[in-house]
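TODO from last week: model Endonuclease/exonuclease/phosphatase domain-containing protein.
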Amino acid sequence: MKLGAHYRSFESDAITIQSSDHQCHVICIYRPPRGKKNPSTINDFINDFENLLHELKQSKCPFYIVGDCNIHFDNKSDSDTKRLISLLTEHDMNQLITVPAHRYGHTLDYLITSYSNSLILDHQVFDKAISDHFLIIADIDISKPKQEKRTVTSRNLEQLNTSVLKDMLKNCLSTTTVENADHLNQAMKTAIDHCAPVRTRTISARPISPWFSLEIKKAKRLRRQAERKWRKTKLQVHGDIFTHHRNRVNSIVEEKKKTYYVNQLQGVASCNEFFQVTDCIFGKEKTTALPCTGSDKELCHQFSTFLIKRLKIFVHNWVQNHHPNHMHLF
């Protein structure tokens, strides 16, 4: 979704969430504190916010406004809060966050929706120790596309006991005669199957991250363990430990990404390869434009007809230029 108007008193961005049965808009806004960089008054913000509500209601589908308005919604006696509540009431809107969403105990971050046309089932507020603002999570009644499943087989070679593997191979090779490569392969397969058996499991297909490594995997595991402990004890010291592991994961991922793309760019040998790497960095998907047809069979027929026509033209021109006496054949 693209907002039609530019609002001076706050920053804004909007997205559209669409599924097979529903569609809704999510608008994130941020109203900076008044100062030299933001001379807008509370009157400017109320007017812009009302215009935003009018614009969103014209779309005729549910919408949700989230973000930081820098108005303490928990302070009901504040004049700015009263004006905002009055505006929301006039437009049949409701602000759902009633608990502190900031480190200093105020409700600055909002989740605004309509009383009569809302798909929100539940919402929660979490302190993820990311910033001085808390994380707001909302469950929306929209069917999520099912993740594609695939079956994979693997061996846990990380925990392979090489000493046991060597002993099994020695015993096997000493008791049997290796007549050909097939016998040797079978002996090695039997030993490896015993030390690291094949496991078959079903996993969700996710985008491949070429920079992902075992170092990132271990760091994420430690981060998750630290977060669980902090959630359980609520102690500041465990919160600091979680923050340390979280920052370490972010640092490792950033460094791995940087190294991967630097190596990719250094290996570029042509402009075409350069644009392929930059498209990958910016998330541009490569699409193949094909003619619109009713079926694959019809598309193949169009391609064959086109190629046969071009081939006949090429042969005709070649014979005309090199063997004009044989033109009667065409």
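Done. The beta strands are 11-18, 23-30, 63-68, 93-95, 109-114, 120-126, 135-140, 149-154, 199-204.
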